[in-house]
């Protein structure tokens, strides 16, 4: 029952019932009001006295009953009536048209005859002329009529006010609903720091209140599911990290032993084998790293944290760490980062560094024969680009050193993940990898 | 003698690294876990810590050491290569090297850290210069005279010495020495490097101490 009264439906029904019965209610109220008013009004004549038919009948009767039609007789009749109706006027006009007598009839003849008037022939004979009884109809009005005359305008205004009050109430009702729905919609669109909707405050326990409760429940469930997802992500990362750790530990031991072994006196063939082993250990290490990244990237569990960074500066710093490695391998290194007009790119610095690392690693491993690496910038109306060039045997010649595939797949996923583009142009005389950021149309950079 | 505290639970890796570092002339205290740490932290110059350890993990040990001895350089040496681990490690440690590693790389990084914290008192010889990294006394071997640098030149050269063998971009140098963000086109650094070269280079027209790495930056190689 309580629920029913909290319901919007109940309120709506109340308004509808109010609307339907409003006219009756207003009538009822007015009736009571006017009746109340009329109680305070004195009427000059009782309702019996104020009966027009009775007056007419009795006037005719009195006129007919006049035994002798003479001035004193008529005068007496008039006096008798005057006692009863002191506001009335009476007069006798004889056959010749002379005014014979009158009682309180010395008024002007109005333009419009509104007074109640009864004409009778004295002695029931028209040769005696006629007597007239005249009295203002105003005096015969009922108190209700009088009250209506006096307070009519107030009552009309009252009725209109009543109707407008009703319209206003229904307006308030619907506006209340609308406002709450809009607030709910707004609240639904608001996002917390975690990207989830926030709780809405429930003030009333009606249908909208229940909707808000449901919404809050949904937010709660979303939060829980997000938490579960994060836990799973954490578990997965943990698993991969542990796996990678467990693979690397024996690799480190292997590394230690080859290193120790290499220090002893060995025939050149054995030294050669050790070098191959060392290289392989390094390769396995990189492969594990790439495999882990690839798995995380494929599962979209590799966190992308886009920031506006100076890509030229970042590239230069990355090259600073790579330079000694290339130097050691006897590469000719050409760096020309003359900069772009707009060198701030929206990228994840870790991802961007990883892309450069993978590409430079590839140059080192697969294009070492060219002994050349160049990193340059290129700027056109359409794009800004970073070029990594080598003079190796090209991508076709890399089959003897597999493993670049996964590295390039990672580059591909990361480049696309950051809304950049990349192109590979490879011939047997070298490879050019272009990492580019398209400029926005009409020359408006980000 | 430089004393290195090394925490590693893998016997084979531990003994190998210990032997290697000892052969390089360091004194190494090798622990297999973070227990009884307090006995050693007081008089060591550097700590090398693995992460996956029985009991207390390397992160907790490293953080504790850094809390107790803020000026002790810490190098994390781990097979955990995830970015999150590196970030957590570098939150308190000074360097993070992943396994498998080349022992020479470890040695190089140890030296960089010792130099940065001025724990190393071996005199550096760079070209015709002799430099005491602790006092930053610079002596020209040819003339056997001390080279005196002005404030900013001194800071700049000291920055190079602390990042020996590392290529430094102009942004890194400017921000490291001046402590302000580098503005593209600012010539201040170039001017100071020119003055510095005039003082320390044998032939400032062909600089040998402060190398220019075209397109990238500068380097002082030991």
Q: Please mark out the parts of chain B with pLDDT under 50 across 5 or more consecutive residues, or reply none.
A: none
What is the number of independent domains of chain A?
4
What gross morphology of chain A would you assign? rod-shaped
Report the β-strand fraction of chain B as a percent range.
Answer: 15-25%
The number of E-state strands of chain A comes to 11
Q: Major sheet of chain A: order of its strands?
A: 6-8-9-11-10
Query: Span from first to last CA of chain B?
Result: 21 Å
Q: State mean pLDDT of chain B (0 to 100 scale).
A: 89
What is the β-strand count of chain B?
A: 12
Quaternary state of the chains: heterodimer
Q: Structural class, from secondary structure content of chain B?
A: alpha/beta
Q: Report the order of strands and helices of chain A.
A: HHHHEEEEHHHEHEEHEEHEE
Q: Taking all residues together, what is the mean pLDDT of chain A?
A: 83
Shape annotation of chain B:
elongated
CATH fold node name of the largest domain in chain A: Heat Shock Protein 90
Give the % helix of chain A: 55-70%
Protein name (chain B): Response regulator transcription factor
Domain Response regulatory (chain B): 3-114
Organism (chain B): Gracilibacillus oryzae
Subcellular location (chain B): Cytoplasm
